[in-house]
Amino acid sequence: MDMHTLANPAAPATVVLSTSGTTVEDVIAVARGNARVELSADAVGALAAARQIVDALAAKPEPVYGVSTGFGALATRHIGPELRAQLQRNIVRSHAAGMGPRVEREVVRALMFLRLKTVASGHTGVRPEVAQTMADVLNAGITPVVHEYGSLGCSGDLAPLSHCALALMGEGDAEGPDGTVRPAGELLAAHGIAPVELREKEGLALLNGTDGMLGMLIMAIADLKKLYTSADITAALSLEALLGTEKVLAPELHVIRPHPGQGASADNMLRVLEGSGLTGHHQDDAPRVQDAYSVRCAPQVAGAGRDTISYAITVAERELAAAVDNPVVLPDGRVESNGNFHGAPVAYVLDFLAIAAADLGSITERRTDRLLDKNRSHGLPAFLADDAGVDSGLMIAQYTQAALVSEMKRLANPASVDSIPSSAMQEDHVSMGWSAARKLRTTIDNLTRIVAVELYAATRGIELRHGLTPAPASQAVIAAVRAAGVQGPGPDRFLAPDLAAADAFVRSGALVAAVEPVTGPLA
C-alpha cells in the first residue's frame, strides 16, 4: 500500500538533528527522500547529560518508573539491578506484538526518524551510542517490518515502535535497501552495525511516542496541499466544460468572507480560467442565472479544507517541537512521569483532515456527474459518449468515482472518538490516533483517483465544445495529459488504462506542473 507518491520538493541530502527538534521538510526528506541523518554536537551533549541523570537514579534504592520498575499496570514492582537489562529487552520483545499487513517503508522511516528526534532532545535518558545506532540504521536503508495493527495511540505507538526497537537489538525482521526482507541481525551485520544492548529506561524510551501518527500526519499534509491545488484546477476545468461563469470567483466576492483558503482556491480557479472562450455562455442556449452549488461553491468547500490543513500544520509543528516520552528527564535533574504520550492532539486533526478530504471528494464527484448528464451538462453528449447508446462513454468511470467517495465517507467516521481500555485499566482512555492516520492514507489515495476522474471527464468535455476556445491553461493541461497517454474523445475503449494514466498524472504532480507555466505559481 505504498501509494503516496505525490511529488515533493527537492529534499536535502543530509538532515542534522539538534536538541531544538526538526522540521516538516526534514521528516519528508528522510521518509521519502532517503536523506542521511546526523546528530549535532549539542544533541550528543544533551544525550550524555541526560544519561548521567538516569545512571545516578538507577544507583539509588528508590524506585523510578521506567528505570527500576515494571511498566504500565506492572509499575508497582521494583526491579533490582541484576534484572534491569532483561527488563528493557523484555519490554521491546513483548510489545512488538503487531499483526496484519506490513506498513509502508516511508511510514516506518518517518516514525524511526521522529523517535530519534525525541531521543536527541536530551529528555529521554538514552545513551548517545543508541541514538547513533538509530541514525546508522536509517542511513543504511534498513527498514524494520512494522505491522498494520497494534497501536492504540496512547503510551504512543507502542507496537510499531517496538518492532523498530527490536531491529536495533538485532532481532525480528527488516527490509534491506534492496527491498528484500531478512532477519534484522543479518542486515545489521552486513552494514557493520552492532546491535544495541539496552540499559535502564532505554527500551521504554524507544517505544513511548506518537511518532507513527505524527509521521503519517506530516506526509498527509504534504499530499493534501498538492491535491487541493489539483482539485482547484479540475474544478476550473469542469466550470469551463459546463459553460459556467467565472464571475463568482472575483476577489471582491471572497474578501467579504475572509477565510484564507477560500480566497486562495478562488484565485487559483480564476487564474486557470483566464482567457477562456467557454466561460460566460451560461445565458445562451439554456439560460442559467446561477451555476449549481458543486460549481459555484467550489472555492468555499476546497477553501475550508485548505484552512483545515493550515490548522493541521500548526499541530504538526508543535508536536515536532515536543519531546514525547514517559518519564522525561528535566533540565533540573528530575525524572518525572507525565501524560504527553497521549495522541489526542494529533488524532483529532487526522480525523479532521479525513472529513475535509471526504467532502472535497464528494463535491468533485458531483461535478463529474453533472458533466455526464445530458439534462444538466448544457449541450454535452450523454456520458460524453461518441455515439450515445452504442457507446456508454464515461458512465462507469463515474460509478468508480462514486464508489471511492462512498468509502471516503465511511472513513470520515472519526477514530479518535473511540477508546478501548487496556493494560488492566491503567491505560483506560486512548486516542486511536494510529488508526486515524491509517484511514487518512486510504482517504488521500481515494481522493487522488477522484480528482483524476474529474480531470478525465472535464478535459473531454472541453474538447467536445467545438468552436469555442479554452483558456490557455486548459489547453496546456489537455496537451500534457494527452501526451501522458490519457486519450481524448472517441468511441468506447478499454477505460481502465486511461483512468490509471490520469491517476498517475495527478499523483506525480504533473497536473500542477502543466498549469503553472501559464498561470504562475498556484496556492
From TrEMBL:
Annotated EC: 4.3.1.3
Task: Give a yes or no for keyword Lyase in this entry.
Answer: yes
State a single Gene Ontology molecular function: histidine ammonia-lyase activity
PTM comment, free text: Contains an active site 4-methylidene-imidazol-5-one (MIO), which is formed autocatalytically by cyclization and dehydration of residues Cys-Ser-Gly.
Write out the GO biological process terms.
cinnamic acid biosynthetic process; L-histidine catabolic process to glutamate and formamide; L-histidine catabolic process to glutamate and formate; protein homotetramerization
Catalyzed chemical reaction(s): L-histidine = trans-urocanate + NH4(+)
The covalently linked position for 5-imidazolinone (Ala-Gly), per the record, is 154-156
- List the SUPFAM superfamilies hit by this protein, alphabetically: L-aspartase-like (SSF48557)
> What does the UniProt entry say about where the protein is found?
Cytoplasm
Q: What class of enzyme is it?
A: lyase
Give the keywords, sorted.
Answer: Cytoplasm, Histidine metabolism, Lyase
Pfam families, alphabetized: Lyase_aromatic (PF00221)
State the family named in the UniProt similarity comment for this chain. Belongs to the PAL/histidase family.
Q: Can you name this protein? A: Histidine ammonia-lyase
